[in-house]
Amino acid sequence: MATTPSTPAPKLNRINLSVLDYKGGKTTLCAGCGHNAISERIIDAMFEMGVKPERVAKLSGIGCSSKSPAYFMSRSHSFNSVHGRMPSVATGAMLANRHLVALGVSGDGDSASIGIGQFIHLMRRNIPMIYIIEDNGVYGLTKGQFSATADVGSKLKTGVINDLPAIDTCALAIELGATFVGRSFSGDKKQLHAMLKAAIAHKGTVMLDVISPCVTFNDHEGSTKSYKYMKDHEEPLQDINFVPHFENIDVDYDEGSTLEVTMHDGSRLRLRKLEQSYDPTHRIHAIQRLLEAHEKQEVLTGVFYVNPQAPTFLDLLDMTDRPLATLPESVIRPSREVLEQCMEELR
Ligand SMILES: Cc1ncc(C[n+]2csc(CCOP(=O)(O)OP(=O)(O)O)c2C)c(N)n1
Ligand code: SF4
Ligand SMILES: [Mg+2]
Fold first, then answer.
1. Cβ 210 vs Cβ 132: under 8 Å
2. Where are the alpha helices (DSSP H) in 207-273?
3. What pLDDT, in 10s, does the model give residues 103-120?
């Protein structure tokens, strides 16, 4: 008698969830959009790191990129804010509950054009969160106008040429105070995957600029954010390997050619240097190297800067460990005597 083959049990992570528990709604973005590939990598990284979906707060602004949190981790909290205003919502969420894992997804328009003011203040505060810019150089949702990350001389489908210099969001983030800054490419599965896992382990602001081609409005000859351009011009700085704190893998590595960074939870970020003199713990060198890359028309990818020790905004404010919403009135309400003393001091 023929037996029916049984379906293999799904692989479970360290909190007994399967990858299906990290999925979201069906995407409504264009087929082949780089943003969809980034959502896939987020799902894999969160699953492998065993992050509880209910602890994650997905935050975004407006744009195709900002729609994408609907397509991963349906069990998480989600807040789709106003165009360019996600950073203030993220700051508030983290101040209210420091146990959240905040994951911001923005676009180059959302962050570098309309939202640049908010972006700047988020970076200088080192708010503990992962901030991803899905960077296609255009406003995809409103049909492909140049954004502030478009390179000088790049061309729209209509033939319009961009005359303005691009804002390098990575150089800016490093200058301002973000403590984990990198650039990747939606088509570089291995690099992006490792970077996202390290990002989850980092305590402080992680800013990842991920080049994410817009197949509908910016994937043609003359664009510097197309798949072809990225395949031809991507220059990785390192081979990235991430060992989470719950895996005890000890592989020998050559310290001369590999730099190991221990994250605050004991995880290890191993960067096999493809460029010997590059030191991702040196802020000024990182900015200099990014500026040089622009001169050479290279699209540098990798971890540009990492500092796992810097205090976050929550440390500086000495925020209570308990989520604010759970504090009883007896703790948060000053007594009559304290209020009277304040009034006295103001007299
Ligand atoms: C205050 C405000 N101004 C303008 C718009 C129109 N608008 C919607 S999305 C967008 C740009 C989105 O570009 P980007 O952030 O790069 O996302 P993408 O669609 O490329 O992923 C603009 C200008 C808006 N929704 N709100
Ligand atoms: S318009 Fe561009 S950015 Fe928007 S979903 Fe389509 S390919 Fe992606
Ligand atoms: Mg865009």
1. yes
2. 227-233
3. 999 999 999 999 999 999
What is the rounded CA–CA span in Å between residue 10 and residue 27?
A: 23
Query: Minimum-distance ligand to the CA of 218?
Result: 2
Q: List the structure tokens of 276.
A: 């010997």
Closest C-alpha to 109, from 88, 87, 136, 132: 136
Q: Are strands 299-306 and 234-236 parallel, antiparallel or unpaired?
A: parallel
| Residue found by looking up tokens 């605050």 in the block | 264
If you measure from the C-alpha of residue 117 to the centroid of ligand 2, how many angstroms do you get, rounded to a whole number? 25
Q: Is 105 exposed, middle or buried (0-12, 13-18, 19+ CB in 10 A)?
A: buried
5, 6, 7, 8 from 1: Cα distances, Å: 13, 15, 19, 21
The pLDDT tens digits for 86-102 are 999 999 999 999 999 99
Cα–Cα distance, 80 to 67 (Å, whole number) = 8
Instruction: Look at residue 7 and give its three-state secondary structure.
Output: coil
- Please give the number of the atom of ligand 1 that sits closest to the Cα of 65: 21
